[in-house]
Amino acid sequence: MEYRKLGASGLSVSALTYGNWLxxxxxxxxxARQCVAxxxxxxITSFDTADVxxxxxxxxxxxxxxxxxxxxxxxxxxxxxKVCLPTGTGPNDKGLSRKHITDSCHxxxxxxxxxxxxxxxxxxxxxxxxxxxTMTAFADLVRQGKVLYLGVSEWRADQIEAAAAxxxxxxxxxxxxxxxxxxxxxxIEPEIVPTSSRLxxxxxxxxxxxxxxxxxxxxxxxxxxAESRATSSLGSTFVGRYLGGPVLSAVQRLRPxxxxxxxTLAQLAVAWVLQNPAVSSAIIGASRPGQIRENAVAAGHTLxxxxxxRIDAVLIDDMYGDLAERDPxxxxxxxxxxxxxxx
Length: 343
Known about the structure:
This protein has about 350 residues and is an alpha/beta fold. The chain has a single domain (about 10-340), classed as NADP-dependent oxidoreductase domain (TIM Barrel). The protein has twelve helices and twelve strands. An eight-stranded parallel barrel has the order 3-4-5-6-7-8-9-10, surrounded by six helices.
């Protein structure tokens, strides 16, 4: 496993982070334990979750992860979690107010069974709360020793710039942006990456496999495999935008490149994300331990310039043009906003 600094900070993280967005629930605790054990065996030390994961049983994913990590030397791992999205029906059960941040942090600490959170991330930007209130609440948690580092997730470049200025003024470490990033979704490249790099924030890339699309399991003009993410009510909301024929055909054209390198399509896709020097870590999920073993191969696998160019060329379609989404306006856009060629 390769280890990288998270942004310009002194915190080292594994190049792959194990995430449990859709895979950890109270009724899957044993499988989660096996997956976490496999991640540790592969050298993964970074684990990402959120207070909202496992809904409607809010906090379930945090609890399952905490149980799976029980007994692991705390100093040997990095635990990331998030706050902002609704975790209840009350008026203060969402957002980035001082109250919700404080209440959620304490709940996450209990759920995870830990005294501190390595990286506490603002899950989205809150338009209804003054940014100064948000950053001051985060700073207080840092000074109390309950949080070591701060991050954001799916924020625009101007929002990151404003938060970084306040973090500098408050003398607290804002070090990361967790962003969707893959061969097919590159909206952070024009603005987010340059701004973050200048300010010392590293990227934690989620969905490097484009919700499983880049594994090649979805085929043009074929029904999605049974029990795949595309057949679940929640998963289909996210993967649906990639299931148009042009994209699925392009993914299949990547297969010979992967074969030449002795990689699977999934390994190629993860390795591609990790080639970007702005990316500190890529988040992988797993419904079974074998998927972690497979994807761990991508860490430390270098793709040369010729291979990167060949991959880019595959995504240029004669009829539809560039199949990779690059519009910076799509940062944190609703998942039902799809380019016309994906329909």
